[in-house]
Design a protein that fits this description.
By secondary structure, this protein is an all-alpha fold. It is built from 17 helices and two strands.
Length: 376
């Protein structure tokens, strides 16, 4: 039987709910073509004072979060826990790190010319995580435009005194700055509302609503919207779905990388290639995808698209087990069936390996986990 599990429409949607912070989801395996569905579970804290165990878990999660290099996981962590009093200290540290990384983004864009093209790139990459940096860039762009207009006006109207012209330019620039900041804030809020509306349309299976609320965001480079649009199109327009999954995957969204790998395994909307599928699964696994790790275990065990290796199969199944344990702990949910399946297959492989191979795989697992604790 083909052990690679598949993702249902509801499974993809559940992950999107989790991205929005509406619920916590846990992978559920299915005996079929491709990878793990998601089950909704709600994580809640009934006390406001953190227990020692909770503090220890928070510290471990914080350390792993701060050790990775992406901004989006920091923002998602803040959104997820911002209303939970027991996370107040950890949230302060994560917010400080997010601010530090946004400052680095600002430094990166400092030498770039203030034009619409650079603003578009900055907005697409960092509007969700660093809206203040985007607003400042937009303000400088508008300020430069205001200065050009002011100079042109000065040349055309020499009768204006320098002092009067200066005061007029300052007032114009100040108004532009306020307008720019307000515009950026409104854009962030509008994007959040559109994502919520996109989610609602997906849940209600309303095509007009999905096209109205998801498509504009997707076209403007929002990876979550691109992935969600791919999910919506998957059944009837798999080639279009692959296009949107690929866009989101290239932007680093782990779930989209996973979804694209599933399409390549099945040859659904793309030319079937387990080799390409394994590459996307590896990228998704680096972002803590339990399903991707499980699928890689199957591929290496069977030698499909990769060189057959019981040692690497053992490694990937071990990773799937570790990630499933971690997700269940973080989401306060039960272990998925996939955990038990990976455990059974891993133990079977264990009998085939030498002590040295087992040691190599375990060392590789420790190194891998130290880098992939938090997903996008």
């Amino acid at each position: 039987m083909n052990h690679i599990t598949r993702v249902t429409w509801q499974g993809y949607l559940c992950l999107f709910w989790m991205i929005l912070g509406l619920t916590a989801c846990q992978t559920q395996p299915i005996e079929a073509e491709s990878v793990a569905t998601q089950k909704q579970t709600k994580a809640s804290v009934s006390v406001f004072i953190a227990t020692p165990e909770q503090l220890q878990a928070q510290q471990a999660e914080r350390d792993a979060l701060l050790s990775q290099t992406k901004l989006l996981p920091l923002q998602q962590y803040v959104q997820k826990h911002q209303k939970d009093p027991i996370y107040s200290e950890t949230l302060a540290q994560v917010r400080a790190e997010l601010a530090k990384r946004c400052a680095q983004v600002a430094i990166q864009y400092q030498p770039k010319k203030r034009n619409a093209e650079h603003l578009a790139h900055l907005t697409a990459d960092h509007l969700e995580t660093c809206p203040a940096v985007v607003a400042q860039f937009a303000k400088q762009l508008l300020g430069a435009s205001s200065k050009s207009i002011s100079q042109a006006t000065s040349q055309a109207t020499p009768q204006a005194t320098p002092q009067a012209q200066s005061e007029k330019s300052e007032k114009t620039l100040s108004a532009s700055q306020k307008s720019s900041t307000t515009s950026a804030q409104q854009k962030v809020q509008l994007q959040k509302e559109q994502l919520q509306q996109c989610h609602t349309a997906m849940r209600q299976k309303k095509q007009d609503g999905v096209m109205e609320h998801c498509l504009p965001l997707a076209e403007h480079g929002n990876a979550n919207a691109q992935n969600l649009l791919g999910i919506f199109l998957l059944a009837k327009q798999p080639q279009q779905a692959a296009k949107w999954f690929h866009k989101a995957a290239e932007r680093g969204l782990g779930q989209a990388q996973f979804n694209l790998g599933v399409q390549y395994v099945n040859g659904h909307g793309v030319k079937k290639s387990t080799e390409i599928a394994s590459q996307w699964f590896q990228r998704a696994a680096r972002q803590r995808s339990t399903g991707a790790a499980y699928n890689l275990g199957i591929l290496y065990m069977q030698g499909r698209g990769v060189k057959k290796s019981d040692e690497l199969g053992f490694f990937w199944f071990s990773l799937a087990i570790a990630l499933a344990d971690e997700q269940a702990r973080q989401n306060h949910s039960q272990l998925p069936d996939e955990h038990d399946k990976a455990l059974i297959i891993r133990d079977q492989l264990l009998q085939k390996l030498t002590p040295l191979q087992i040691t190599h795989a375990q060392n590789k697992l420790e190194q891998f986990l130290s880098k992939v604790r938090i997903t996008e």
